[in-house]
Fold:
Amino acid sequence: MRLTYWLLFAVYAANYLDRQIFGIMLEPIREDLALSDHQMGLLSGLAFSIAFGLAALPASLLAAVGNRRNLVAVSAILWGGITLASGLATSFVQLFLARSALAVAEAVSIPASHSIISDSAQTGSRVRRFGIFTSGAAVGGVMAVVVGGIVGERFGWRVAMAVAGAIAILPGLLLFLVAEPRRDYVTPKRDRRFPGVFGVVARTVWFDRRARLSFLAKVINQIVLAGAAAWYPAFLMREHDFSQVETATMVAFGGLLAILGTIVSSRVIARLANGNRAWLVRGPAALIILSKPFSLLFLTADNPVVVLVAFVVPATFALATFPPTISLLHELVRPAERPVVSALLTSMVTVVGLGFGPTIVGIVSSAIGGTASLSIALIALHGFGLVAAFLYWIAEPHAAVKRASAETDLDRV
Structure:
């Protein structure tokens, strides 16, 4: 199981490598194919997010009843091949289709990976496992900066895409060397369609206070993360005259911090949650609140050294809210429904985060105008983070509310 887990980690890192290499190569692609900013925006956001959202839910049904190892392996090989082939694109339409196909392939792997990780794990170990797994996104982001910065700079964006695609194919092939992990449940044989499972899972999440508010909080917070990821590099170059190399170094540094922060924070929250499960929601709230003053300083400071120092805290905890949130949701539903609840969360996070975060910043910045418009738009963006922190915090009702709820339940009986 240990080898399987680390191969899943490698696949997830490759997932984000192939997802983010496009953003690193955005400007060279635009210049080479003579595309507009509007077209590049569609390729970066809607082409990926909508296809991902549409594919994630059907993929979760396959993960609930099919061979999860094969699903992850085949999807990794497919998206690696698609990334490699996208380096041959000569038009907007070809790139749009490639980005959409990439999203579909990546959407297949995540519910299956989550199901494997979650099976046979308790609250604490589940949070820790998801913490390490989630840090793979930061590893992939760092790899995208390295491949895009070194290979792309020397050999061009087409070769960089080919290298990124080849890296994704390797762990996919290696997965075929391990066995399908044991499930926590018996796979249904008679009805492999799981009729109504989406409605069942959605109702289960909605009618549980902690699950409902945590789900909404994570989706809302992703608006901030996606907007920041898309616009922080431009902010650094525009407001502080960072070069492309300096900006890429800053992004890579942030990725390394996110790896460390996600692993450490998930271990701390896991230990606290073993004694009091309220920390599965209070932990993310505390991390978001802790990060906000530093985010504000990052966006308002004039001294580049202060900017760098302020960047450390929000970068460290950028991914830290996901492990406790997905662990809470997996505890709530039946084992067979875990791929479905993972798909619901990741599809909403992707569609809403990618669809609204960068767009909101662009619209607000254009509407304001002037030299400080981007920094003002990014400061406003963090308002969504405060809303997310509030939802996380109130997800765990205080003692008086719990007593009132218990008395109401007794009255009904």
Observations:
- DSSP finds 18 helices and no strands in the chain.
- The two ends are 45 Å apart (CA to CA).
